Amino acid sequence: MRLDKFLKVSRLIKRRTVAKDVSDQGRVLLNGREAKPSSVIKIGDVLDIQFGQRTLTVRVERLSESTRKEDIEGLYTVLKEEARKKEEDNPFL
Questions:
Q1: Domain of life, per the record (predicted)?
Q2: Rounded to an integer, what distance in angstroms lies between the CA atom of residue 24 and that of residue 1?
Q3: How many domains are there within the chain?
């Protein structure tokens, strides 16, 4: 399954076009490497997604072509969620 589609189906990102843009900007890592929107996702892969001041690390547990809101549980497991500090963004503060 494509990365941009997984991000949308899993509801980590609401729209596929936004998932594509985020990937194109280099804000998604797949198993520690920068991922393109067309990167193939497999069960067991680890994704690091940067949302503004927050980074979310998840492991892919299950793939599904489409899901209802009730069925998204179990698609991924959150491994780590961390907020970046302002000092990391600008060392001159």
A1: Bacteria
A2: 17
A3: 1
In a domain, 90, yes or no: no
Mean pLDDT, to the nearest integer, of 18-34? 93
User: 15 to each of 21, 31, 35, 79, 88, how far by Cα in Å?
Assistant: 10, 23, 17, 23, 29
DSSP 54: E
Q: Is 28 left (phi over 0), alpha (psi -120 to 50) or beta?
A: beta
Tell me whether residue 91 is in a domain.
no
CATH of the domain at 29: 3.10.290.10
User: Is the residue at 93 inside a domain?
Assistant: no
The pTM of this model reads 0.80
Any residues with CB less than 8 A from the CB of 70 and at least 6 apart, and which? Answer: none
Residue 12 counted as domain residue: yes
pLDDT tens digit sequence for 83-93: 876 655 555 44
Asked whether 11 and 72 are in contact (CB, 8 A), the reply is yes
